[in-house]
Write a structure and sequence with these properties.
Order of helices and strands: HEEEEEEEEEEEE
Helix content: under 10%
Mean pLDDT: 86
Number of helices: 1
Radius of gyration: 16 Å
Structural class: mainly beta
Low-confidence stretches: none
Largest sheet: 8 strands, antiparallel
Amino acid sequence: VVAAVAILVAMLLIAFLRISGASMTPVISDGDIVLVLRTNDVERGDVIAFHYNNETLVKRVIALGGERVNIGSDGTVKINGAALDESAYLANAQKSRGEPTISLPYPVPDGHYFVMGDHRSTSNDSRNILIGAVPEGELLGKLLFRVWPLSKFGPIN
């Protein structure tokens, strides 16, 4: 019974993902294995996994539904006109406007998330009209821990 409950909890509440790509470096690297908590309780700054075109992508939540996003030529992100403090996870050298194909400023629809990778110059994210804002229904969950490699085991910030 305990094993059955553990398997059920694991299937319904958590998932494990192997990261492929470099769009979230240096926070998460290619080949890392992470634990995802299946939840809709997402806040700005959280790293999430979501479904896109038969793939699972991992990006950071920059803005929530109802907010307006603008990105300056220097890569500074503004939410409703106020500069977003990204110093906890993004060095100034990593800032990049990229080449957005969306119209800026961008109004995030209700029930959606505007997401960006931490490696801004290479990330394919909400700045691209093909991905755009992520609907809540496509959310897999929030990344909590890195479990591999063991040398980097711990929470994901």
